[in-house]
Specification:
The protein has about 140 residues and is an alpha/beta fold. The radius of gyration is 14 Å and the shape is globular. A hairpin with a 6-residue loop joins strand 3 and strand 4. The protein has one domain: 3-Layer(aba) Sandwich (Leucine Aminopeptidase, subunit E, domain 1). The chain contains four helices and six strands. Helix 3 runs parallel beside helix 4. The longest helix is centred in the C-terminal third of the chain and has 14 residues. The strands form two sheets. A three-stranded parallel β-sheet has the order 1-6-5. It has a three-stranded mixed β-sheet with strand order 2-4-3. Helices cover about 30% and strands about 20% of the residues.
């Protein structure tokens, strides 16, 4: 399946799974991650626990479902520490793990290319390549 690109606010999507890149030390204090946690505050404790117990590492994908809304958050370990230190290899590993879950659709921002510091064109090419390997999952990229 090809990747679809949309302009707009990812949080208004009809897609039930919103993915985002995050660090693995338990901090969701900026960017999309901060918006995710504001909308799903009950996820924070489990996220921090997983990070502190080293159960969530770079290259991992962890799906959390909001018990009230039924919408899911796909946490993608794209970097170890907060800031501009995402690695393309970790983005690819996390996306492979996510796409292996055989979800119907995933909405993503420009993961790893904002605060994470990666070049969007490289990340975009990796997403498109991986999406071709998992044709049953629709990938929708939201660009502001």
């Amino acid at each position: 399946m090809t990747v679809e690109y949309r302009k707009g606010d990812i949080f208004t999507t009809e897609i039930n799974v919103i993915g985002h890149g995050c660090n693995c030390v338990g901090s969701m204090g900026a960017g999309i991650a901060l918006q995710v946690i504001k909308r799903n505050p009950e996820m924070l404790t489990e996220y921090q626990h997983r990070c502190h117990q080293q159960q969530f590492k770079p290259g991992a994908a962890w799906l959390w479902t909001n018990p009230t809304t039924g919408k899911s958050v796909l946490n993608l370990g794209t970097q170890y520490f907060p800031g501009a230190n995402a690695r393309l290899a970790w983005v690819k590993e996390a996306l492979t793990a996510a796409l292996s879950m055989k979800l119907e659709a995933i909405a993503l921002p420009r993961i790893g290319a904002g605060i994470g510091g990666l070049d969007w064109e490289e990340v975009k090419a990796a997403i498109e390549e991986l999406s071709d390997q998992f044709p049953t999952t629709k990938v929708v990229i939201y660009e502001l």
